[in-house]
Amino acid sequence: MKRNIQRNERGVALIIALLMLLVLTIVGIGTMSSTIFENMISGNDRIATDAFYAAEAGVELQRNQIPAQLPNLTAILPTAIGEDSKCWSGGPQDKESPTPPVDLGPYFRALWGTDWGFIRFQINSTGQSFSSMKEVEIQLTWGPYKTGTEYN
Predict the structure, then answer these.
(1) pTM
(2) CB 98 within 8 A of CB 76
(3) How many domains does the chain have?
(4) 8 Å CB contact between 53 and 132
(5) What stretch of H or E contains 107?
(6) Residue 119: in which H helix or E strand, if any?
(7) In degrees to the nearest 10, what's the CA dihedral of 42, 47, 50, 54?
(8) How far apart are CA 80 and CA 54, in angstroms?
(9) Which of 33, 59, 119, 121 has the fewest CB atoms within 10 Å, measured from its CB?
(10) Domain span including residue 64
(11) Alpha-carbon gap, residue 59 to 62, rounded angstroms
(12) pLDDT score at 135
């Protein structure tokens, strides 16, 4: 009788091994696709970060040129930042014709009196890296400068 039972169970180990192999294959494919997806996400994040830093570089470029441009603000030409990154002044629609910083006009601050003035500017800059674009907008104050006639 024992011989009959052993003969009937010969293929069970093969079927169990094949099922285990199938389960491990499915788990491996799922892990691989998850890893590929995460890698794509991190690559897109790196490109977006490059675009943001290119826009920040454009803001700094314009901010540093404001004292020299005070008599007449002119557009800052597009400036290359690296091989695949670029920044320009203005929004995404201004890529071909950059816009100058916006002069928000003079204003007076408390505790400074009317003899001292400040000028406010708004700077927009857009950075691009491959297909990603990021826009940065800041407002800054330049001053104090002497206003009025200086007569007592």
Answers:
(1) 0.71
(2) yes
(3) 1
(4) no
(5) strand 102-107
(6) strand 116-129
(7) -160
(8) 9
(9) 33
(10) 2-146
(11) 5
(12) 94
End-to-end CA distance of the chain: 125
CB 122 within 8 A of CB 90: no
> Does 152 reside within a domain?
no
| Domain membership flag for residue 60 | yes
Q: Tell me, yes or no, whether 108 lies in a domain.
A: yes
SS3 annotation, 51-66 = HHHHHHHHHHHHHHHH
Cis, bond preceding 144 (omega within 30 deg of 0):
yes
DSSP for residue 24: H
Give yes or no for a contact between 148 and 73, defined as CB atoms under 8 angstroms apart: no
The answer to whether residue 151 is domain-embedded is: no
Please, what's the b/e burial string for 66-81 (b: 16 or more CB within 10 A of its CB; e: otherwise)?
Answer: beeeeeebeebebbeb
